[in-house]
Structures are given as C-alpha cells and as structure tokens.
Amino acid sequence: MIIADRKPLAELLDMVRDCDRILIIGCKGCVTVCNVGGAKEVGILASALKIARKKEGRPLEVDERTIERQCDPEYIEQVRNEVGGYDAVISMACGVGPQFLSKAYPEQRFYPAVNTTSFGGAVQHGVWEERCAGCGQCVIHYFGGMCPIARCSKSLLNGPCGGSAGGKCEISKDVDCIWDMIVRKKMEEGRLEDLLDVKPPKSWDTARDGGPRRSVREELVQ
Amino acid sequence: MSDLKSGSNLEKVLRAGHFAFTGECGPPKGVNVEHLKEKVAHLKGVVDAVNVTDNQTAVVRMSSWAASTLMLQEGVEPNFQMVCRDRNRLAIMSDILGVSAMGIRNMLCLSGDHQRFGNHPQSKNVYDIDSMQLIALVKKMRDEGVFMNDEEIDVPPRLFVGAAANPFAEPHEFRVHRLAKKVAAGADFIQTQCIYNMERFRGFMKQVVDMGLHEKCAILAGVTPMKSVGMAKYMGKMVPGMDVPDELIQRLQGAGKGKVAEEGIRFALEQIQEFQEMEGVAGVHLMAIEWEHRVPEIAERAGMLPRPVV
Fold first, then answer.
1. CATH for B9-301, options being 3.40.50.360, 3.20.20.220, 1.20.120.430, 3.40.50.920
2. Per-residue pLDDT for B1 more than 70?
3. DSSP 3-state assignment of B81?
4. Which of A37, A154, B20, B106 is deepest in the core (most CB within 10 A)?
C-alpha cells in the first residue's frame, strides 16, 4: 500500500490561516490502513485544528467527510455538492487525492494533510517500511525476494557496499542493510552462486526517470 | 610493453613486477590551487600514483578530474577517483572520455559514500549504475571501443581500471566474492580499505590467493597511519566497515604523550614490511589524510625509495 505521514499541525494551521470554514476529506484506502488519513484521523485533525484556532481567538469551523477512495473519479464525484461551501478543503489521502479533487473541482483550493513517503507495509504494530520503489521492472526474484532498488540506500544491484556493518546500512543504525539480508539468505540456501554474476546496469526508462507512467488495460478502455 | 592497457606509470610499475606504492590527495574546498600544488609536491617522486578523491564523504570539493589535471601539470601521476553517487551514465561516460583526453591514465571506480554523511544531505543521489557496473563500463569503453549502448567511440579512452575492496565490511564471508566480481568485471588493480586488523586481512588474502584473484588483478593494501588515540577510536567506532582492534588502541595509548603519532607510523611501517612479504599483495596504498608532508619520511623509512622509473 501507499504509506504516508501526517504533516505537522503548524504547517496545516498555516495553510488554512485565512479560512473560517473548512472541510477535511479522508480516504478509506491505504491511508486508513496506515492510520494516517481515515475517518478516525480526520476527526483527530479536525479537533486539533479547532482547538488551536480557538486558542488564537479565531475559531475555525471544520466539517469531516471520508470517502471510499480519492484515486477514483467515481468516489470523487460523491462530494460534488459539498466542496463548494468551504474556504478550503484539506485532503488526508496520499498525494493522489488532492490532485484528483483539484482536477474535478478547479474552483476550490485543496491542501494535502499528509506527506506521501513510499510503497510498503506494516512490519509491526504502528511501524511501516518501504518495500517498493515503483521502478516499473520488478527484479526481486533475483535477490531472494528482497528489493535492493527500494531498500538499498544506493540502489546497488551488486552489493553490499563497503559501508555495511553489523547488518546495518552506513546511513543509519536504524536502517537494515538489505544486501546483508540478501547475501545471508542466499548463503543459508546454499545458492550464493546466484549473486556471483555481475548484474548489468538497469534500464530506468520504466521508472519515473522515463517520465510519468501510464498503465492501460486495453480490454477495459471504452 | 606495447600491450599496456593504459600506459600509466602505475600499470608499468606493476607490470615490471615492482611493489607498487600509491598515495592520496584530497582536492581543496575551493580553488586554492597553490595549496593543492604544495600537497602534491610532497608526493612527487615518492609514490607511483596519487589518488584524487571525488567529493569524499559527500563533501563538496574541487572536481576530481580538474584536480587530477592540475596534478598532471605538476608532473605527478593521478589516480582519478569517480563515484556513482553524483553522475548518471551520460555524465560518467563523458567524464571518462574527458579525463582520458586530458592525459589521465588511472581511474578508481567507487559507489561513493551516501550523501547523508556529507555537507549537502538534502541532495538527490544518482546511483544510475553501481561501482561494479562502472568497472565493466570503463573496460568496455577501453577494450571494445564502444559506449554502454554499443555505439562506437571515436578514439576510445585509455585507462588503468581500479576498484576498492573492504575486507572488513560485512557479511565477511561474501567480501572475497565481491572482490572476485570486481575482478571479473574488469578491475586491473584493487586498493583496499585501511587495514588495522592484520589477522583478518591475512585470512582475507589467503582466500584471495586460493581463488587466484591476485594473478588477475594487482591488490594494493590500504594503510593509514594513526595520528592519535582519538583518531583510532573514532575510526573504530564511527566509520562503518572499519575494523580497529583494541590492541592497536592500547598500543597507541601506551606510547605516551607526544609519541602517539610516531607509534602510529611505526605500526604502519610494520604493516608495509609484512605486506611486502605477504603472498598476493602487489603494493601498498598509503592514505595519509592531510598528512602529505609526512609521506616522504614514511616512504623512506619503509624502504620504498627510490621509486622505480619504468
């Protein structure tokens, strides 16, 4: 899923500093699963904004709404009669949500409440980690089911580099060295030979480097 | 020696069977050419080639190719370092052509420290290709006369291709295999990370010799004299992939006030002595960081002078 972190309250307060009445729209997709932009978090943010503005002596009226997904025009359409009545609208979806909303309702101002960080999953309760860089050409099967593009700080295809120590990456002791994990798994499997050939340079033309990506399912296009 | 790959002094010294001795010099944080020349002057005639670092530890400095060119003008052979962190394959290939055109004949291929360490941690990193692929690329351009995309090069570059190896990084069991990959990719010579744990290095070299890697590629052992106890502790604790045994720290501590640097040099001299006798080691790479003025003395005491003229 897509993982995001909420922006600091101060940044959000600054976004809506000239507003008296706003709407916060949550999303029941990925951001609900990673506990950052679902109905519950919409409620928490609404309260926090209201309390902060009340303290300033300039009360803010905040309405709440959470839709099925903000990456689908069908659901974006459901708020057509609501978004016009506010000074601004905050989207708690990933970076896709405010863009779909802005496209559908060009007369309204939409602000992102979260910073979208990565594609990944939960590794323990309350902790999510990146697993995929969306490079457009999956290679994890060469590396014991682990992605060095997303998980090596240098995206090395022929790691580990000289900075790997104690199973950790040179950039931080909080970051696992994925190449350490790949090598150890291959050694345990007795398949070290899988890593002995020099992997050739990757073509990045399917990644973001090749320009914005578009996926088309011909059978569905009308 | 018409079949030389690059014709560099380092290549010729190694080809002639001499024990190579290389140094290192960081470009200035500015255009202080005079200071660079001063540092280079200490190394002239004392080493076979001098590594010119490329924004080492991700701190911005004068470009390594420009500093290498200045070094050439001073009559000292550079070993141009290139990291994959700051350039995509287009910039890499054009710089390879550029340095060769300027007369630079050695190139060390590195991944590069992550920019998180440096003075611009906000920067975007590139890593379009990695150090292994860089080695293969330089070799391909030189030997096949084509770019990565197989298009013909109008007069190919001539470079003696170097790479780094860290016998002390983890997983230890994989390190010799990674070296083997670099040799297979096309490395002509290897310079190792600074060695302090001699026991472990002996084990590593035994693996290297058992696999016959030393016959395909010249291995230069990395030496950095410890200047102080603080430096030894810092390198052991703070530098990832560095192995500084406690015995060495104790030895430096035991040297007494004002004598630690001399003890550090003595340890380096003992290392160089052993490397000269160690099977598979073809030379020493002396990284005397901001200590260039001490290199002539170290070289003299290590019996490395005069350097062979080939």
1. 3.20.20.220
2. no
3. strand
4. A37
